[in-house]
Specification:
123 residues, 5 strands, 1 helix, 45% helix, rod-shaped, 5-stranded antiparallel sheet, 29% strand, alpha+beta
């Protein structure tokens, strides 16, 4: 085999090796990027859950039950609180019962991250 052919074969081998390395790096970047996106989404869900739990806890004290829906912000999150009588009449021996629903979403997004519901006794 002549020297020119050997150099051409070596060049092709180098190009194939670079293509394989590029494919491997591309796959690695995709996996790392997907993992960081999932970690961010999980962190957002945990923050939304904390907001929803705190708003359900405040139901009846921070805002009246049975009124118009209440909306608010907690950093980049937006929450909506709704309450309605629980059951047919919403009454018990202890007092009026309300079903409170809190939905939390990111600002600018319509799909909620978390929706929690709870039965509350009107204070």
């Amino acid at each position: 085999m002549s020297g020119a052919r050997q150099r051409g074969a070596a060049l092709i081998e180098v190009l194939v090796a670079l293509a394989i390395v590029a494919l491997g790096l591309g796959t690695l970047f995709a996996v790392v990027g997907d993992g960081s996106l999932r970690a961010r989404e999980q962190g957002d869900r945990q923050a939304a859950l904390v907001v929803a739990q705190s708003q359900i806890e405040a139901a009846g004290r921070a805002y009246p039950l049975g009124g118009a829906p209440v909306t608010g912000r907690a950093g980049p999150l937006v929450y909506r609180i709704e309450s309605r009588p629980y059951g047919a009449k919403g009454q018990s021996l202890a007092g009026d019962l309300w079903f409170v629903t809190v939905s939390v979403r990111r600002d600018g997004v319509t799909t909620p991250l978390v929706v929690l519901g709870s039965i509350r006794l009107d204070p």
